[in-house]
Amino acid sequence: MKLLSVAVPCYNSEAYMRKCIDSLLLGGEDVEILIVDDGSSDRTGAIADEYAARHPSVVRVIHKENGGHGSAVNAGLAHATGLYFKVVDSDDWVKESAYYRILEVLRDITSGDSTLDMLISNFVYEKEGEAKHKVMRYRHALPQDRIFTWSEVKHFHKGQYILMHSVIFRTRLLRDCGLKLPDNTFYVDNLFVFEPLPYVRNMYYLDVNFYRYFIGREGQSVNEEIMISRIDQQIKVNKIMVDYLTANMNKISGRRKLKNYMINYLEIITVISSILLIRSGTEENLEKKHELWQYIQKKDLRLYMRLRYGVLGNSMNLPGKGGRKISVEGYKICRRFFKFN
Fold this sequence. Notes:
- The protein is 46% helix and 17% strand.
- The chain is globular.
- It is of the alpha/beta class.
- The protein has 2 domains: 4-215, Spore Coat Polysaccharide Biosynthesis Protein SpsA, Chain A, CATH 3.90.550; 224-338.
- The model is unreliable at 337-341 (pLDDT under 50).
- Strands 1, 2, 3, 4, 5, 6, 7, 8, 9 and 10 form a 10-stranded mixed beta sheet that branches.
């Protein structure tokens, strides 16, 4: 059995996937690289097969019909044989020194008596055209270099959350919690780092800059214009998160810090949905924004009150054109600070 399975969802990735896979190969025989060719029409599948032929004990290729990012992650998880599971998108890569450190920690833990549910590390925004890169780290919120529980987690800053780039999950945990991401839907990475959380009993934070998250490629799903064009998929994911949280509220109600974290994460996703709907400038999308907030209100009034009348919720629901302009200006400031989109 491998120590770590890494799924690499690929769709028409021939121009950049080699950098990603080459960085992952540095993990050696402890790592299983699962290249998921999601119905590509370019040379992605052939390149993947080349890597499997050259590294048969490390690289496996899954060829499938196109089903979107979530479908590719599902396929990777279904085929994974490693004790732990990581997703690395095909236009991203990992840092060699941090990679070795992470594998060392996982080896040490698995050779002992403890079972680790989730390992967290930093990621770096590799933004096109910028010499200085922002690092998302968690040292102020999480204990370092040891296993800890939710009760020891401190406060996360607004806009700072554990994303897909940050996490390595225990493979069995993902299967036990029944994780299945929706097909043909963008932004499902939010579900990947949300739905397993009630099952996570312990964590380990390693303060290393492991994952390099590339931003700036033309056509990238996190580009603001593209996100607005796909706003119905963003709303779909947002509502799935609302449904999941309300359905599992009893399960997490006795774990205050976990509950607060999940509500705060849902809050930032709802704010992103709201600001994109405002930014689109259409009456149709303003109505969708109203409907989204109504959806939350009908699902759980207490949850709605917390989201709607917090600082962020208030800022997204200021009345009239003037209020929407203030919301957009606040969003622009946050965007410059956090380096997203």
